[in-house]
Amino acid sequence: MAQARLPAPRPAACRPTQPFDSAEQAWFWFWQCQIARDDGARFVADAGLVARPCDPDDLWRAALALLRRRIIDRRHLRVLSLFGRRLAPPDPRLAEEAVAARLWDDALDRLTSPLRAKGIVA
In angstroms, what CA-CA distances link 25 with 22, 55, 88, 96? Predict the structure, then answer.
């Protein structure tokens, strides 16, 4: 009888990881990685200047989990995506970005707790 195979453990980072200072910093890092991926870059774990405690996709999954649990809604996710791709938060001083700025702050505030619980945000 064949023995069941267990999944191979994922190698730990070779150096200590540094959590992000804020959910916003983590979100912009995710988008920098996503933009590079869209441009054809391939990622190798632990290759950056700073070792991070997560993969870029972990941040997207955390946001989708909040959406599924109805902690944020599609408007929040749309604003996070739009301004994340721009790599700049919405400016609350501009009338056309005032609502987006409120949604941005609200979404990042709600994203902070799960990211902090996972050790992604300090």
Answer: 5, 14, 11, 24
